[in-house]
Write a structure and sequence with these properties.
2 domains; mainly alpha; 9 helices; Tetracycline Repressor, domain 2; Arc Repressor Mutant, subunit A
């Protein structure tokens, strides 16, 4: 029948269109997978060999991709490092959210911020971001390229901690914001310092001091009864 031929043509056209859609989807998936390979390789390189030794060629070799593929995704070192910082932060953010979700809302989650900051500073993604942050000091082009994303990341992190503080009943004043910034900068410095001065006691002392300030803020805003003070050491002399 005449209509049968038309229906077959329509089915063939639909099949061809569907094949094209599937092929585009496969190409998109392959492209995304290659991009992820490159970004993961960049993080590994930054963590293991440091900022100065990381080049697009070295990363391509580490990722196992061609230089053409590398050029397609990241034509310059600047675009590579900006994308890496953004990718690293997305992974760190996901880790923080997952970790915090396992804790009770309120003060338990807010109290977890300091230990969580120290943990993420030592993760490969945290180390890689720190390498870019430090290396950009002497590299004006990279500094100009990464400053906007670094600023966005800092603001986003500040908003996260601010939400946790408010959920805990705290007013996010200059003191709370100051502790957030001090904690972030302190753990970055500790992560670097432990390479040349590996003293666990130093890390413990710094984290304990940050937590003491946190409990002072909680006591002032919410009352001493909610502060979790570390037990003072027994300094009394033993009886003779």
């Amino acid at each position: 029948m005449p209509g049968d031929g038309r229906r077959q043509e329509l089915r063939a056209a639909d099949t061809a269109t569907l094949d094209k859609v599937r092929e585009r989807r496969r190409n998109v998936d392959r492209s995304a997978a290659t991009r992820k390979q490159i970004l993961d390789a960049t993080i590994r390189c930054l963590e293991t060999v440091g900022y100065g030794a990381v080049t697009n060629i070295r990363v391509a070799e580490e990722a196992g991709v061609s230089r053409g593929a590398m050029m397609h995704h990241f034509p310059t070192r600047q675009t590579l490092l900006v994308a890496t910082v953004e990718y690293a932060y997305s992974r760190l953010k996901a880790y923080r959210i997952e970790t915090l979700s396992k804790l009770a809302p309120g003060l338990p989650r807010y109290r977890a911020v300091i230990d969580l900051a120290w943990a993420t500073a030592r993760m490969p993604e945290g180390a890689a971001s720190n390498e870019v942050r430090i290396g950009s000091r002497s590299d004006p082009e990279i500094r100009k390229a990464v400053t906007p994303i670094m600023s966005q990341i800092s603001d986003d992190y500040g908003r996260l901690v601010g939400r946790l503080a408010r959920d805990a009943g705290l007013f996010v004043d200059d003191e709370v914001q100051g502790l957030t910034a001090t904690t972030a900068m302190a753990v970055r410095a500790l992560a670097v310092s432990t390479f040349t001065y590996p003293r666990p006691k130093m890390v413990e002392n710094v984290l304990t001091t940050l937590k003491a300030v946190r409990e002072d803020i909680i006591a002032r805003q919410l009352g001493e009864h909610l502060a979790e003070r570390p037990r003072a050491p027994d300094t009394a002399k033993p009886k003779q």
